[in-house]
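Researcher: Please predict.
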Amino acid sequence: MRFDTLALTTSAVASIVASASAACADFEILRRNSPSLRARGPTSEQDAAKETLAEECKYYNFAPVTTLFGNGGFPVLWETANLSKASTEDKALFTALNSSIPNIAPRGTRAGDFSGVTYSMATDPDCWWTSTLCTKPKIAALQPDIIRCPEPETWGFTLDDGECPNCSHNAFYDFLYEQKQKATLFYIGSNVVDWPYEAQRGLDDGHEICAHTWSHPYMTALTNEEVFSELYYSMKAIKAVIGVTVRCWRPPYGDVDDRVRYIAQALGLTTVVWADNTFDYDIGTLGVATIEANYNAILAEQSNGTFATQGTIVLTHELNNGTMSESKSFLPKIQSQFKAVVPIAVCHNNSQPYVETDYTYPNFAQFTSGTTSISLATATATSAPSLSLTLSTGQTGSLIVPLSYSVAHAANDAAATTTGSGSGSSATATGSSDNGSRTSARSTSSATSTARSSAPQRLSSPGVGYLMGSLTLGAVVVDALLV
């Protein structure tokens, strides 16, 4: 949507479009948002769901969100969220949490530049995923990240970057609807505000909705206030537009540590990453053949018994026509080879994926027996100028009971430097990942190159270009998984 009633200038609109385009990494948004498509816009979710290009991609005003933004209180779209425009209530919520947040320094930049950062990969004091693929927090009160489905031979079906590039996912959603296939959709808050009808369709079609931050930054680079705001306002945007308070989130690029996990858990959010990666988001660089090889490698693991005792969660995207076309192409193969293809809530038997109790999701046994919905909520927007979230305690605007904070970790924090290190250590020894993930990073010093996962690797598979770029962590270079 676009806020015509707020009298945005042409240059301001152009700036927003450029920002959105950069975030989506796709030229499709520029073509579809050309001036010829801006004359009129849809007035309902049904209109927005039409596949006709002349209708589905027009800008439009959505009164509830226009009212909310007109009254202030939300961050600037596609910029790092903070509390500069926050309500008194939102600021008080952060203040109540801030004093208990682990003293782990931010690292690098929001764009993923970690040059000059020193971090002990051997001890991994902060369970920093980007460095070691760690998913089991070092702070005892924190829950482990969800990385796989516990049910055998199960594909956890997830799609990141919802509605990006906006409306072009209609044909894909129609396909999923026809296939009676549900997924877990990770929605970016700025996208939800930009394209609210499209966001509402995700819930109304029966998919599980989770948060994917406000503006898609590397989260460990942000301050406490910014981490809180990225999570909180993505939740708030989803609540305002769709009407549900989500209980799960996925860190962009997988970038998370115990400080970020702490803030997320305090807001009632479970951290979800993945065990396998198609790298479909980089289809423009890697090419279709490589992405298809990545899909086929995961299917081969199913055939060789890798998932005989527990399933997987796979990273895929509804980012552009290329990623959605590959998902459509492979879904029948996935469904035929895996015993179940399900959203994350289903494979973890979570029948209440939202704080609101009027929505009941089927458990795994029900879903795999053909009951793919029980009590579906209808997407409902609000234009209340002061929007409060009902968090997991059931209290409006409240936090979860403060987490206990270990004395041992506090001692590590006391020794931390302020140069971007979370541990104060400049050691660069290669450590071992404790998560058993098959999607592995590589570390190299001047003389060594060691894979950090003892689980089966696919790094040497012909044509499977899994590792892109590199992050410099002191003297250690870590091949980056850019997602």
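Model: The domain at 141-374 is CATH 3.20.20.370 (TIM Barrel).
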